[in-house]
Amino acid sequence: MNVFDFDKTIFDGDSTMAFVKFCMKKHKKALLYLPRIGFVSLKYYLFHIGDKTAFKERMYTFLKACDGERDVAEFWEKHIGGMKRFYLEMKRPDDLIISASPEFLLKPLEKKLGFTVIASKVDIHTGKYTGKNCYHAEKVRRLHEQFPDAKIEAFYSDSYSDEPLALLAERAYIVDGETITNWDFNIHKKHLRT
Fold first, then answer.
1. Any idea which architecture 2-182 has in CATH?
2. Is the pLDDT confidence value at 166 over 90?
């Protein structure tokens, strides 16, 4: 199987941030959560307080003001064109997407695009997490949990933070836009905040 990160790898941009903006425009009540999102962002990114899962869980509280599955369906109607050309030309039915984005956002693409998704388990109505944010080494744990005998032919990501998955693959690649280059194992992400 080939394994891919999602955001900025096979999707042009950050789907989570695009979805947040989409919901903020659509639901005026969601705007009431902006101060909270700003506060938790400062706390996490500027002052390095807390972990990524707790930060994102607080950020996702805006979902309480949204329409869940209906918003996700409308979002993909408008954003499905953001899938990168290189991926659409090479995709296979056994492709696996492993992403830190919320599962509720990416799961609808399984049928539309014909791949399997492993992503962060986030309640679409409350923003609460079940388990950890699917990031860095957690991606490997989730892969082994769902596919214990998985053999990765090729792995693609836009970020060296995905090195734990790259190390499992026969071949690994860095994606920058539509440009794909060999993974440089001499480059490591230092001081990753998980």
1. 3-Layer(aba) Sandwich (3.40)
2. yes
pLDDT at site 188: 73
C-alpha pair distances (Å), 8 with each of 111, 126, 146: 21, 26, 24
Q: In what order do the strands lie in the sheet with 2-4?
A: 116-120, 96-102, 2-4, 154-157, 171-176, 179-182
Predicted model pTM = 0.94
Does residue 7 contact residue 13 with C-beta atoms inside 8 Å? yes
Integer Cα distance of 153 and 166 in angstroms: 10
* Beta-strand relationship, 171-176 and 154-157: parallel
3-state secondary structure of 33: helix
pLDDT in tens, 80-131: 999 999 999 999 999 999 999 999 999 999 999 999 999 999 999 999 999 9
28 SS3 class: helix
What residue segments make up the domains of the chain, in order of their start?
Answer: 2-182
Nearest CA to 126 out of 65, 71, 52, 63 is that of 63
CA 26 to chain centre: 22
The kind and range of the H/E element at 63 are: none
